[in-house]
Amino acid sequence: MSPRLLRRLTLAGAAIAVLMAPAAQAAGPEFPPGFRTREIATNGTTLHVRVGGAGPPVVLLHGYGDTGDMWTPLAADLAKDHTVIVPDLRGMGLSARAESGFEKANEAEDIVGVMDALNAARADVVAHDIGNMVAYALAARHSDRVTRLVLMDAPVPGIGPWEEVLKNPLLWHFRFGGPDMERLVAGRERIYLDRFWNEFSADPAHFPEAARAHYAELYAGPGRMHAGFRQFAAFDQDAIDNRAWLAAHGKLKMPVLAIGGAASFGPMMAAVMQAGAADIQERVIAGSGHWLMEEQPAATTAAIHEFLHARPATASDGRLAAASLSLDQAEALPRTGAGAGTSGVNGIQTALLYGDPAKPGPYALEIHVPPNTRIAAHTHRDDRFATVISGAWYFGYGAVADGAAVKPLGAGALYTEPAGAAHFAFTRDAPAVVRLTGVGPTDTAYVATSSAAR
After folding, report:
1. Integer CA distances (angstroms), 409 to 265, 287, 331, 394, in order
2. Residues 267 and 304 reside in one and the same domain
3. Distance, CA of 84 to CA of 71 (rounded, Å)
4. Cβ within 8 Å of residue 297, ≥6 positions away
5. How far apart are CA 261 and CA 283, in angstroms?
6. What distance in Å separates the CA atoms of residue 431 and residue 373, rounded to the nearest whole number?
7. Can you give the pLDDT at residue 154?
């Protein structure tokens, strides 16, 4: 073989090798050093998961038009004091291909399997877009495993005004379907996705070109658009599942931060979620549309950081701290039995709203009193105000309840418990809830002459 022919064959082989080699993936967002990737088998599929940092676990769930790579700015912040867990959802990103199982209740089980594999018994959960829907299903069905929940700029099927949300013409893609949808978009993934990145941004220039190229390439992979379309196709079943669960089990009890982009869902995010969660905080991110982590990463990260690092309000050096609770939030608080400043009567439950009655400083608590319950005459060391929240409450002053004047008090009624002044109370056929405030430390001392009644 002549040297010239050999050289030609060599060059031809090299050209064929270049043509057959897979194209280099467009550079995407990079996670901080120390993050590692794992392929975790869970619930009949395998998810691609990034893990980094140390401390209490936090799970970040992406939406449509993104993958777990969207969370890099937040992951860098939270990894300082959290173990950050970032999966690609079923069939999306670099997770295994999947043909079915896109009902959000089922995808929630995917995430439970990831948490189990990483020994994360409980975690904060932060979600965006489709991730909101998976996160809600996870928090509803596994409330013991979700400590705090952040939902960003997308509704949850079946929760609140879902049917009205579906009528918004900007959400046409929720109903985009049919046998040809994947074929119509094949090879045009960037055109299709640009429509969302542009229309749902406050300023399309704030969704970086590098991120667009990266996500478009991932969504052009085998089965990725199929998975995306199936996420939307499952919405009807998701709505049925969520309505049934809400009717049977009530609202989410853990703290929920609802974040909306000012040019997108804005305050509507919190308004919608009030139908599905008892403890809601609202944040609106200025200068952002739907794509919060791309458009305003610093402001969005700061809002999430503040929420996840918040501690329950309590008095500092005996001085009142800022706190606000809705009625739903108060009702969702855990209840215990007897404690400082309570009656200690069997059957009465106590919910601590603020502070610590056993320590110096202001406090607030509720007592939930069953029907036909009597609290004998007693005193407290501090002055207290009381408000009847619900039910029928019978209250009187004096060291002996028998024969003393009793005042029936209904919802909204106010009375005082002056320091050292004996008083008593009881319910009849209906329960009652009474809210008490004072400045601790407090106590309860029963009057000796009424010990038999107690």
Report:
1. 43, 50, 21, 6
2. yes
3. 10
4. 73, 74
5. 9
6. 9
7. 93
Q: Among 263, 279, 308, identify where a domain stops.
A: 308
Bridge partner list, 258: 151, 282
Residue 42 lies in a domain: yes
Q: Are residues 33 and 139 in the same domain?
A: yes
Which residues make Cβ contacts (< 8 Å) with residue 136, sequence separation at least 6? 104, 149, 151, 156, 159, 242, 252, 276
Q: Are residues 336 and 291 part of one domain?
A: no
Task: Please check whether residue 398 lies inside any domain of the structure.
Answer: yes
Alpha helices, H only, 172-267: 181-185, 189-199, 209-219, 224-233, 235-249
- Say which residue the tokens 């400082």 belong to: 340
Q: CA Rg, the chain, in Å?
A: 29
Q: What is the mean pLDDT of each run of 10 residues along the chain (454 residues)?
A: 41 35 57 95 98 96 96 96 97 96 98 98 97 97 96 94 71 65 85 91 94 95 92 93 95 95 95 92 96 97 93 72 78 74 83 89 93 94 96 93 87 96 94 94 82 41
Helices 189-199 & 209-219 angle (0-180, nearest 10)? 130
321 lies in some domain: no
Kindly state the DSSP code that residue 16 receives in the 8-state scheme. Answer: H
Rounded Cα distance, 216 and 88, in Å = 15
Q: Which residue type, as a one-letter code, is found at position 291? A: W
Count of domains observed in the chain: 2
Query: Can you tell me the distance from the alpha carbon of 149 to that of 126, in angstroms, rounded to the nearest whole number?
Result: 6
The model's pTM: 0.74
Domain that holds residue 422: 327-450
Q: What is the side-by-side order of every strand in the sheet holding 45-53?
A: 36-42, 45-53, 83-87, 57-61, 123-128, 146-152, 252-261, 277-285
